[in-house]
Design a protein that fits this description.
Largest interface: A-B, 103 and 102 residues
Distance between the termini of chain A: 45 Å
Number of helices of chain A: 13
Order of helices and strands of chain A: HEEHEEHEEHEHHHHEHHEEEEHEHEHEEE
Catalytic activity (chains A, B): tRNA(His) + L-histidine + ATP = L-histidyl-tRNA(His) + AMP + diphosphate + H(+)
CATH class of the largest domain in chain A: Alpha Beta
Number of strands of chain A: 17
EC number (chains A, B): 6.1.1.21
GO biological process, one term (chains A, B): histidyl-tRNA aminoacylation
Strand order of the largest sheet of chain A: 1-5-6-12-11-10-7-9-8
Pfam family, one (chains A, B): tRNA-synt_His
CATH architecture of the largest domain in chain A: 2-Layer Sandwich
Structural class of chain A: alpha+beta
CATH superfamily of the largest domain in chain A: Bira Bifunctional Protein, Domain 2
Helix content of chain A: 25-40%
Number of domains of chain A: 2
Protein name (chains A, B): Histidine--tRNA ligase
Strand content of chain A: 15-25%
Radius of gyration of chain A: 28 Å
Oligomer: homodimer
């Protein structure tokens, strides 16, 4: 063995990796999410991990967090490439749609499940590399409003199928906020939206303070904004509650109509899964209508696990066409890691195999391999033990890997094949051509 | 629309991305590969895209190609993190095994399908971001030789199932090379291996020249090396051909025994799929036994599409345990992109949907949504058209997305549901509760 110094083998902080028994569950999650997305006819898109920096920064967001690339032994000229890792899947998607505009069929409905990178300080729920699962619909000139309801429906189906702990998808409409703010005489609604978006972090008093000191609102205006933000209702009844505040305006009416339509469309979902919450603002400037933000009920301080909204023209930096869209992003790694940390995720087996075929003796190894091949030909997942060895050791190997069944080829020419059910401990003769593991 | 300058929306050169109808085929490939890997009981591992630079460079290889990371607006101190994107999956796997040594069950058999990055100049078959599919077996102290045969068997099953054009997996054994070179009195066999590995690029004459001028071999030695490298045989008969060169030695015998055993184990595979080729050397120093290299038969200059071999102790930089292993990497993106470029890959549909449900009129939209929900509840993949529109336009949308069936909810209360088969053009009444698309 080498005497060279040992390099510390840990993964870098903020870059999670899982043991096989956890990874197998993550794979099941990814498969489940993909099945639900495809059930609604969304197609898969993957974009490069790397984009030109001017693409990444076209929207002017989160520039601090971007990781840029440089070849290890690059000369100065090489730096001109100006490449960075993507920090979300929305900007690359907008770029993708612009790049392939003439080859795509609109409305374009895609899902995208990829890793993204942010140079943040790692803390609970924040990673520097994580996987997001996004769905977006983008269209030329106009995206029908019913997609604003279809996306939370899909998210509901995903989270329900995954069996995650209780969560609420809060929904609002930027037009309601902007129309309301304009209706009470506020000149710069976007600044008020940005301040209102900090409600979670600084509370109503903090928001009221910033509204007066920074945005220049008077006390009545600030109070009206807080009254609006306090409204929360399970359905389209939210409209009456907003109207009761006595503010009027066309944009407000339009927003309330949209919000009510979306909520009505979702009225069949279980109570509490989708709720109108007028405090939801979403900090990003590009949202123009419906906005979404999902949170765990039991961990209100954990931050959002899904978010998104409707945007008027995200691809406008790349192409001179109006391409509005609506999208939601599911924070897969954030949710998954939280449940893992809370002990709410049951690890799976450390092997995908249905069966371990034992090798009774070196002489009978060929027979064991033939048995494994016969089972594989029937679609079963089969490990063969790697050498002739004590049977107890081979069975223990299956137990440690969580393999549910152990197959014993005949130990003598006049004997049968046998299979042992590791859960019950029962062992019985079995036919290579017909045996299947009982359904889980 | 904004008058801001347009940012060029193309993906960066060397970072491939596919249209939905190509991505859907890539997904099918990935699913197929995963199914085959799991059929042999290999478990999935994913490691972070990013490793500490001292981990990446522990083996001293390919340092030029490594992309290092830096936060966009980092201060000088931030650079100390010294992070880089992985350039293969073998080094991260070795680090992973060392990090989780006490939690893994050995022999540890894993597959890993991930993107890797190399700061190379893009050209045919060379990308800066691409996906590799690796399988490796790693064990404490000893890995049974039969795994050296199992891996090419799995690769054979993968490539056959994918239906790629004819290829050959060339196989050799480093012990044969080293034993042979020692047997003819060469002092530094590794240097000769590195020179022999360039046969493809510089030909026999170039190799002979380097062997004499750089490695200091005499003419007889150089000729013997070329005679060895010229040997190529479909099975264990290769042993006789090597013996005929009259060189002797224990290590040579050991290597020939191993090579014969592996070839015998694979004798049932179709002729030409696995061939002993004594010119295969693999440049990397860490291989110690069996080595593999697969190539397309029809494009001999395209370079290798799979490669790998047996290594004595790849994790030795990270942990003071002897962890030998054997592995093969399938160059997925390289193969996929080549077939795409050659026109040998038939794009799939641009939507995963089995059915498009049309919306006959705005009044009947709820009925269309209900029909779609009923079909989805039975596991079908269903798009609903996004608005009431001319039927011809809705059917054309299905055609452009490659959706095989169009579903017509009743246009009047006394009518039936109907479904149109887009391939045959036939339209017939259909039952929401029983209809399924005919198997493809």
């Amino acid at each position: 063995m080498s005497d060279a110094p040992i390099v510390r083998p840990l993964p870098v902080s903020g870059f999670p990796e899982w043991l096989p028994e956890v990874r197998i569950v993550e794979q099941r999650w990814l498969d489940t999410i993909r099945v639900v997305f495809e059930r609604y006819g969304f197609c898969s898109v993957e974009t490069p991990s790397v984009e030109a920096l001017d693409v990444l920064l076209a929207k002017g967001e989160t520039s601090q967090e971007v990781y840029t690339l440089r070849r290890l032994q690059a000369d100065a000229a090489d730096d001109s490439a100006r490449l960075g890792l993507h920090f979300d899947l929305t900007v690359p998607f907008a770029r993708y749609v612009a790049a392939h505009f003439n080859e795509l069929v609109f409305p374009f409905k895609r899902y995208q499940m990829q890793r993204v990178w942010r140079g943040e300080r790692p803390q609970e729920g924040r990673f520097r590399e994580f996987t997001q699962c996004d769905i977006d619909v983008i269209n030329v000139d106009r995206v029908p409003l019913h997609f604003d309801a279809e996306l939370p429906r899909i998210v509901h189906e995903v989270l329900t199928t995954l069996g995650v702990p209780p969560w609420t998808l809060n929904i609002n409409n930027r037009k309601v906020l902007q129309g309301f703010y304009e209706g009470i005489g506020i000149g710069d609604p976007l600044e008020v939206i940005r301040i209102a978006d900090r409600m979670d972090k600084i509370g109503p008093a903090g928001v009221a303070d910033l509204l007066t000191t920074r945005a220049g609102l008077d006390a009545d205006q600030a109070r009206a904004c807080l009254d609006l933000a306090a409204i929360r209702a399970p359905g389209a009844g939210v409209v009456d509650e907003v109207r009761r505040l006595g503010v009027k305006g066309d944009l407000l009416d339009e927003g309330l109509d949209e919000l009510a339509t979306v909520l009505d469309d979702l009225a069949d979902l279980p109570a509490g899964s989708v709720v109108a919450d007028l405090s939801i603002a979403r900090g990003l400037d590009y949202y123009t209508g419906t906005v979404y933000e999902a949170k765990f009920v039991d961990w209100p301080d954990f931050g959002s696990i899904c978010s998104g909204g409707r945007y008027e023209n995200l691809a406008g930096s790349f192409i001179r066409r109006s391409l509005p869209g609506v999208g939601i992003s599911i924070g897969l790694t954030r949710i998954f890691a939280k449940l893992l940390a809370e002990g709410l995720l049951t690890p799976g087996p450390a092997s995908p195999a249905d069966v371990l075929v034992v090798v009774p003796t070196a002489e009978r190894r060929a027979q064991a391999l033939a048995a494994a091949a016969a089972l594989r030909a029937r679609g079963l997942k089969v490990e063969t033990y790697h050498q002739a060895d004590k049977l107890a050791r081979q069975v223990r190997y299956a137990a440690r890997k969580g393999i549910g069944h152990v197959w014993f080829p005949p130990f003598a020419d006049d004997r049968d094949h046998e299979v042992k059910d590791m859960a019950s401990g029962e062992q019985a003769t079995a036919d290579l051509d017909t045996w299947s593991p009982p359904p889980a």
